[in-house]
């Protein structure tokens, strides 16, 4: 029975790892469920003119549905990055392309502050940093407006 304490310690270690993995799995499951719900809600809002009036009030009315669609893309990419369906180098390219178009820049200008205020973990903060980098990169590439 010299191995008894070692075996007991191994069982406790395995049990602890299992509990930690279950907890992490449960957290990721909740995040995925929330992302699905968020996407559905944003889609329904984008297709409802009355609901659009309450969202992104600082954006011109005709652009609000587009900004909400951009929000859906950003939420999906964040989830894909979190779950490992997209790696960071690929996402950098996606974010740069996204910010290369006016709707992407308009969305990020409107949503950036809120996304930073609601970032709940390192993943959210990293995602926001990558989006900020892409936004800054495309802003630097824009030609200066002609002075009249």
Description:
This protein has 148 residues and is mainly alpha-helical. It has six helices and no strands. α1 packs antiparallel against α3 (64-83) and α3 packs across α5 (102-117). The longest helix has 43 residues, at 4-46.
Q: Can I get a quick summary?
A:
With 148 residues, the chain is an all-alpha fold. The chain has 6 helices and no strands.
Number of strands: 0
Give the termini separation: 90 Å
Computed over alpha carbons, the radius of gyration is 21 Å
Mean pLDDT reading: 82
Beta-strand content: under 5%
Task: Count the domains.
Answer: 1
Overall geometric form: elongated
Helix content: over 70%
| Uncertain parts | none
